[in-house]
Specification:
Radius of gyration: 18 Å
Strand order of the largest sheet: 1-8-3-6
Helix content: 25-40%
Number of domains: 1
Shape: elongated
Largest sheet: 4 strands, antiparallel
Distance between the termini: 16 Å
CATH architecture: Sandwich
CATH topology: Jelly Rolls
Strand content: 15-25%
Low-confidence stretches: none
Structural class: alpha+beta
Mean pLDDT: 90
Length: about 180
């Protein structure tokens, strides 16, 4: 889904993470799904999966996380996904997926009925991995002098570049080979 709906952003993930894996091949072999997912991290919430309004501020700000709903519940009565900043409530049945920038978009889910079970599976990427690559494969906290000034000076450029990777419908070739 990620590669189809956000091909430029997906490629950005691949390029940055490849830089990390080339320098630290031991990290590559510890990825949850190295052949099938660009995401280096995942979380299983084995329930009851409900959440209060929150952000995931450690994730890449312009990055997308993949949230999948699992379980056995009536999606017409609960388990809805709320996207607070967009004033949207989405009926989110078991098996549904959504890609969203969880670091900057407040989200939560509603409760389900007694006796039902809702789980979730989320894939995501920490923003610190991208900052490390952007800092020349160094910890930002250890940058000094000109390197530190240059990194800080380019902060707004990196943010704008990141959001420019979001797809517009015109960018997508849906249903075309």
């Amino acid at each position: 889904m990620f590669q189809i709906w956000a091909p430029k952003l997906h490629k950005h993930y691949q390029q940055n993470l490849q830089t990390i894996w080339k320098r630290h091949p031991d990290l590559d072999k510890d990825r949850p799904f190295p052949e099938n997912s660009v995401y280096p991290s995942c979380t299983f919430n084995l329930g009851p999966a409900q959440s209060t309004k929150h952000l995931d501020p450690q994730n890449l700000p312009y990055g997308w996380c993949d949230i999948a709903a699992l379980g056995d519940y009536d999606p017409s009565l609960g388990g809805h996904l709320i996207l607070w900043d967009l004033n949207v409530i989405i009926q989110f049945p078991p098996g549904a997926h959504i890609l969203l920038p969880s670091a900057i978009l407040y989200h939560s889910c509603t409760t389900i009925q007694e006796g039902e079970m809702r789980h979730s599976f989320t894939q995501y990427c920490a923003g610190g991995l991208f900052r490390w690559v952007d800092a020349g494969c160094e910890l930002v906290s250890e940058l000094e002098g000109e390197k530190k000034e240059e990194f800080e000076k380019k902060s707004k450029e990196r943010e704008e570049m990141g959001f420019s990777l979001f797809s517009r419908l015109d960018d997508l070739k849906l249903g075309q080979n």
